[in-house]
Amino acid sequence: MIFQIVIGLVVALVVLAIIMNAIQQHKNKTEADKRTELAKYKKIIEETEELLMSAGSIPVSPQLVLIMHQRVLDALKSMVEISPESREISSRLRDAQERVKGMSTENQPVEETFIIPDEDRIVIGMIKAVKKIRTLLRAEHTKGKLDTHLFMAEDKKLENFQIKVNIESLMKRGNAARKSHMLGSARQYFEKAINTINAQSARNEYTSQRHQELEATLNEIAAELKSSNLADSKKKNAEDSDDLDVLFQPKKKW
Fold it and tell me: How far from 244 is each of 233, 238, 239, 247, 251, CA to CA, in Å?
């Protein structure tokens, strides 16, 4: 009888250990999943806040800024649901709610004038930021966070800005090369700019104007290259003529 009791206790302890281990594994998995989810939303917030900082140097619309702030707010709401005991996340959520609540998209004109920075590094950074913002917009539209009309309007604005940066940057490099009398390089930059415009399915007032300017500039460069080549040819012919005169001139008798 005692032996059976001992066996029963041992079996009970083994079963209890198995149950406790399963509970601990489930708890560990739950905590790991929780950390993974929190890390995912934290990354969304960090990326969006980085784009909001970049938006300070890009003429984005107030609607687009609101969309990005709302994205941060949604991510914080999800984090609070996962970790309601976190005071830090709850505090950030309240701040984000107040920020979005105080934002207005009415009667806020967008700055249309834009000057291309001199540093290529800054220009490249801006283009990368625009691409990331367009990806963000598509993601929010896919999740149903903004309607199709607003998505298409904002995406088109960003696309036009991206094209403008490319064209202006190429033209700036072309003009610099032209001033340095590097006509071949200048022509390549202007040709790339005009090809960028030609690749667009539809033109607007800006691209139409730039296309005319680029064609006129390319014609001027072609004339300059022709004149330069003609001058070089005349100079070479003159040098060859001088060499022949020296070769065939009468030899002096001593």
Answer: 16, 10, 9, 5, 14
Among residues 46, 63, 57, the alpha carbon closest in space to that of 125 is found at 57
The reported pLDDT for the residue numbered 249 is 54
pLDDT tens readout for residues 172-184: 999 999 999 899 9
- Which residue range(s) make up the domain with 138? 27-104+118-146
175 & 215 share domain: yes
Please check whether residue 77 lies inside any domain of the structure: yes
pTM of the model: 0.73
Q: Are 56 and 98 contained in the same domain?
A: yes
Report pLDDT digits (tens) over 109-142.
Answer: 555 566 777 788 888 888 899 999 999 999 999 9
Q: What is the CATH number of the domain that holds 170?
A: 1.20.58
Judge whether 166 and 182 are in contact, CB under 8 Å.
no
171/127 same-domain check: no
Q: How many CA atoms lie within 13 A of 92 on its CB side?
A: 20
How far apart are alpha carbons 104 and 100 in whole angstroms? 8
| Alpha-carbon separation of residue 111 from 14, 128, 142, 161 (angstroms) | 72, 20, 29, 12
